[in-house]
Every structure is written in C-alpha cells, then in structure tokens.
Specification:
Distance between the termini: 42 Å
Structural class: alpha/beta
Shape: globular
CATH architecture of the largest domain: 2-Layer Sandwich
Radius of gyration: 22 Å
Length: 444
C-alpha cells in the first residue's frame, strides 16, 4: 500500500483543505504515515501570506527531495499557481495542484490533464474531510476573496468569493454535533460576506426574514447553526470590518452557543495607510464597530477582541504608526498578531517602494507588543477568582491540561487526561499576559 504525508503551512483554511486532501488519498487507497522520509507521496499545503511562510516551503521542498528522492511531491494551496514559485521549484515538485482540483486527485496522480478541467471553485468543499480532531472541526462556508487588499495574495491564489449552500453547511454541522463534536469553527476568507439562496423552500430553514428574501446572510447562518440541538460552541474567522452589520453583532450577542470572541483585523490605525492598503473603511468606522460590539455583546466576562496588524507598510511614517499605537490604547485588544510588512508577488503593494527599514519595522513591532502585553494582562485580571467553562484541547509535556474559554483565553490546570475533548469548569487563580491558570471545579 502506498503511503502519504501532508505538511500544512498557514491558516485554518489550509488546515481544513489538508483534511479534505487526506480524505481523498484515503479513498483511493493511500495510507497516512507520520514519517515523511518514508512516504511515497508528500503533500505541501502552502501559504503565501507572509514571506516567512513562503520561505519555509522552499526549504521543505529541497529537504523532502534530499531525504527521499523517490517521493512524489504535490504542492497545493496559495503558491500552487505562482509562476515564479513553479520556476524556482520545478525540479523539486512533481504536481502543481490548485486546491479546487483535489476532487480530481485520482486522475491527477495518473497524469490526467487537470488544468483543462473547468470546475466550480467551491465544489471541493463537498468532500467529507478526514478530521484531525475528534472534538473540534473546521467547517468552511466558502472560498476566495473579493476585497483585493493591496498587500494580500489571497484573491489571486483562491479567486473570487464563492459560498456553499446553507443546507449543505447545516447538514455538516448536524453530523459533527451528532458525533459529539464540541466546537464548530466556521471559516472563510471573509465570513461576513456570506450569502446563500434558499434552494429548497421545504428545507429546515425557518428564519422568517431569510425565507421572505429567499437568501440568508452570515447573521442568519449563525442563528441557524445556533439552533441545532447539542452542547457545543460556535466560532468563526475571519471578519472584514467593512462587512460587519448591526444584525451580525446582535446575532453574536443573542446566540448562546456563539463564542463571545471576535477577531477583527484592523491592519493599521491610520486612514491614509488604510486607503493605501485598499481596506475600504476608515478608522472612525472601525472604532464605532468596537464601541457597538462592547456595548451589545454582554456576558459575565467582557467580549474578547483580537486583531491583525501590519507594521512598516510602504510609506508608513512614524506619525502614522503613532495612530496605530493610539488604536491599541483605545481598543485594548486581548491579542494581536503583528507582522512586519513584506512585499508579496503579484500584489498592488509589490509595486510600492518598501521604504521602512527592517530595523524600524522591528522597533514598531516591539513597541506594539509592549503595549499589548500590558493591556492583555489588565484584561486577564478580570478573570481572577472566576469559574470559567473551558474546552480541553490536550495535555502538555509537564502534565498540565490546557484548553480555551469561549473568549479564546488559554487556560491550564492539573486534571485527568480523560477530560480532553470535554467541557470543564476551572476556577482561575493566576493570570499572565496571554494565559490563565486555575484549579478544576467540575466536568459536564
């Protein structure tokens, strides 16, 4: 029996794609192996969002062929159609596979000319994945992006936005919940743009507003997923600030299964830089959204807000960076993923002069991290003495169990490893910038 090994680089969407690739390979007779040096087939699910992720792919491709000359290498994901990458790795990669073509994987492995096959870019999401977890599952609701932020490769790598039918998504979630899954993570490049026609008027979609308009948007979808019977949480990523509606904020607030955590990438705190990034909103709009979120989403503990930030974007002056500092101080983020700008092949920003030095980018990143750590610690102080519900994800090398709260806070404590994949209550006795520690109180 031939064996395969999959290496995933990047975001939740890439992880979900790898689960579908694994399912396809299982279905055609391959067997998974953890030892890539012994695999007949090695799949690289790639990410081109940051230069560091791209560089990792180059290193891995060379290493794989060096350690296993007989392995066939498939490269899929964001870099699979980049001509410069194809040229650079032409002797290291055997098959270049656009992700939506994985439904043709059996034919592709026998030299089928898949590039001439026209296919709906969302069809591959109908493949039932080989989930890597037995309690937490990614459920893609669509693929692609129409925003064309000037720094981002995703629209070129994945194409325009295409979304799955609501019935299809709901059936997948129902199946997962029926199997005992405790966490459903709805994913897309921009979940807020979701829209699906109601194909079947006799379907289980009972939302009156949706039925009258003959389509549902993301807020309707959240309500429908929330109405599915079972004890589980719902998360979602990623949101674009220009597309968050008042109704979506209300849906998050009212749906008891939807976690009170919103990842809302700001990318910068200055309007001129946002315009240069083609983000299509101003910082005043972003701050108004934050105000509405904090006002309307109420629970025992404050809603958690996280973000993505790029420092050193072309033309960003010290004064403009100062506006990002002010944004951090106003919003008081629980977490921020800060990246130093790097030009991405084929994007509009690639043509701009990368005029902020590497040293200055590092200084700006360090300044934001210093602010973030201080604010995150202050936010976490509110958890001291509280009993919080935690979904246990695993056990670390020191024997501590760890998991997350509905507000996406990492919690560790001593407990039985049989709790992994279950909800438990933990009383918080110690807080750090990016983590909480406590003692077990009860399990569900």
């Amino acid at each position: 029996m031939k064996t395969y090994h999959i290496i995933t680089i990047g975001c939740q969407m890439n992880k979900s794609d790898s689960e579908r690739i694994a399912a396809c390979l299982d279905n055609i007779g391959y067997k998974k192996t953890e030892k890539r040096e012994q695999a007949d087939l090695v799949v690289l699910t790639t990410c081109g969002i940051r230069q560091s992720a791209e560089d990792r792919v180059y290193g891995l491709a060379h290493k794989i062929k060096k350690e296993n000359k007989n392995a066939k290498v498939i490269l899929t994901g964001c870099l699979s159609e980049r001509e410069d990458v194809i040229k650079r790795l032409k002797d290291k990669v055997d098959i270049w596979l656009p992700i939506n073509q994985i439904i043709n994987l059996k034919q592709i492995l026998t030299d089928f000319d898949f590039r001439n096959t026209k296919i709906n870019p969302c069809d591959y999401l109908k493949i039932k994945p080989k989930y890597t977890s037995v309690f937490s599952a990614f459920v893609p609701i669509g693929n692609g992006c129409d925003n064309f932020c000037s720094y981002c490769v995703v629209p070129y790598a994945r194409g325009h936005e295409v979304y799955r039918d609501a019935e299809e998504i709901l059936n997948e979630v129902k199946d997962l919940v029926g199997q005992g899954y405790k966490e459903i993570i709805l994913i897309a490049q921009n979940v807020n743009s979701y829209k699906s026609k109601i194909r079947n008027q006799e379907s289980g979609i009972k939302n009156q507003e949706a039925r009258e308009s003959n389509y549902i948007d993301f807020s309707h979808l959240l309500r429908l997923v929330n109405s599915i019977s079972g004890d589980f949480w719902v998360r979602f990523v990623t949101s674009h600030p220009k597309d968050i509606s008042d109704d979506l904020i209300l849906a998050i607030a009212k749906c008891e299964k939807v976690c009170k955590h919103i990842h809302l990438p700001a990318q910068a705190g200055d309007n001129d830089i946002l315009a240069s990034m083609n983000r299509k909103y101003k910082i005043e709009h972003y701050l108004e959204l934050i105000k509405k979120i904090k006002k309307n989403i109420k629970s025992e503990l404050p809603v958690a807000i996280t973000t993505d930030i790029i420092v050193g974007f072309p033309g960003e002056t010290k004064e403009q960076f100062g506006n990002t500092v002010k944004l951090f101080e106003k919003v008081k983020y629980d977490m921020a993923y800060i990246a130093r700008y790097s030009p991405r092949y084929g994007t509009a920003a690639e043509k701009m002069k990368d005029d902020v030095t590497a040293h200055e980018k590092r200084k700006r990143e360090e300044k934001l991290m210093k602010i973030l750590k201080k604010i995150a610690l202050e936010n976490n102080q509110k958890y001291l003495g509280k009993v919080v519900k935690v979904l246990i994800e695993g056990q670390n090398k020191k024997g501590f169990l760890f998991g997350k709260t509905e507000t996406n806070k990492i919690v560790k404590f001593s407990g039985d490893k049989d709790f992994v994949g279950k909800f438990v209550d933990v009383k918080i006795e110690k807080v750090e910038e990016f983590g909480l520690s406590g003692v077990f109180k009860k399990n569900y």
